[in-house]
Amino acid sequence: MTEYSATARYDGKWWSVSFDDLPEGYGGATQGRTWAEAERMAREAVALLLDVEKDSFELVMRPADPAMAAAIVEAERTKEEAEQAAVRARKALVVAAVELTKKVTVRDAGAMLHVSHQQIAKLAPKAS
């Protein structure tokens, strides 16, 4: 999916959005009272300028303020890391539940992993 970037500047009442990397010969700007409105307007502007569907591209909009932009990037990075960690944790819990229930009861496996025996029964259904 094609990705376009935009920069938004806040003047106290409006977010003014400019586009950073549209194809050669294309340009434009838009605005919105709120971040969400400015982002929606930016997506619509790109779609209209390029004559494409609004959901056919990725739009990455960042504030012009470097500290704000850095904070957003860091939050997105750590959120992605947390989501990946949650997936790894879920997989590890399944492996542990299967292994433990080969040798102990579902209740004991749940106590050992600090989850309910019902959750263990769902994770390792053949053992219950």
Automatic annotation (TrEMBL):
Listed SUPFAM superfamilies: TTHA1013/TTHA0281-like (SSF143100)
Gene3D superfamilies xrefs: 3.30.160.250
InterPro entries: TTHA1013/TTHA0281-like
Name of the protein described by the UniProt record: HicB family protein
